[in-house]
C-alpha cells in the first residue's frame, strides 16, 4: 500500500475506478477516524464498526460522484456520509446495511443450492489470501461477530471487519469472473 501513501484522497478515489486497492488505501486512512466520528455521534463502539462498514460500502458505490473540493481531501465527504448513517442509527436503533446488501456482499449459498454452487464458493474461498478466507468463513459460514473473529484471528474487530469486507469483495470478483 506504500505506493498510495503520497496520493491525495481524490487521486485514490479516481484510481479506485480501475484499482480497488486504491480504495483500500482510502479505507486505511479513514476507518479509525470514522469509528471515532460515529462514537462521538453517540453510536456505541460495537455498532460503530457497522457504521464504518456501511460508510465505506456507500462511499464505494458513490465514488464516481465524489467531487474534489480543491484540496484533494475526501474527509468532509466521508464525514457527511458517516453523520447521515449515525443519524439514521439514532432514528432506527440500528445500522441500515442497504449499501452492503446492494453490493451483494453475502456469499452464503442457500441450503438448497446445488452442490456445484457450493463447490464454486469453496474453490473461490481457497483462492483468497488465507487471512481473508478465514475471516469470511468465520463471518459468513460460522456467523460470528467481528469481536469473536478478531479473537480467533488475533486481530482487532476493525481489522477483522476489514478482512471480511476485502475478502467478500475479492470473492465477488472471482465469482463474477467465473460466471462470465
- The CATH topology annotation of the largest domain reads as Rna Polymerase Sigma Factor, Chain: A
Q: What's the average pLDDT?
A: 81
Radius of gyration: 17 Å
**What's the architecture of the largest domain, going by CATH?**
Orthogonal Bundle
The topology string of helices and strands comes to HHHHHHHHH
Spans of at least 5 consecutive residues with low confidence: none
Number of helices: 9
Strand percentage, roughly?
Answer: under 5%
The name of the CATH superfamily of the largest domain reads RNA polymerase sigma factor, region 2, helix turn helix motif
Name the structural class.
Answer: mainly alpha
Write a short abstract of this structure.
68% of the residues lie in helices and 0% in strands. It contains nine helices and no strands.
Describe the protein's topology.
Elements lengths: L8 H7 L4 H21 L4 H17 L13 H18 L5 H5 L12 H12 L3 H12 L4 H8 L3 H23 L1
Helix pairs in contact: 1-2, 2-3, 2-4, 3-4, 6-9, 7-9, 8-9
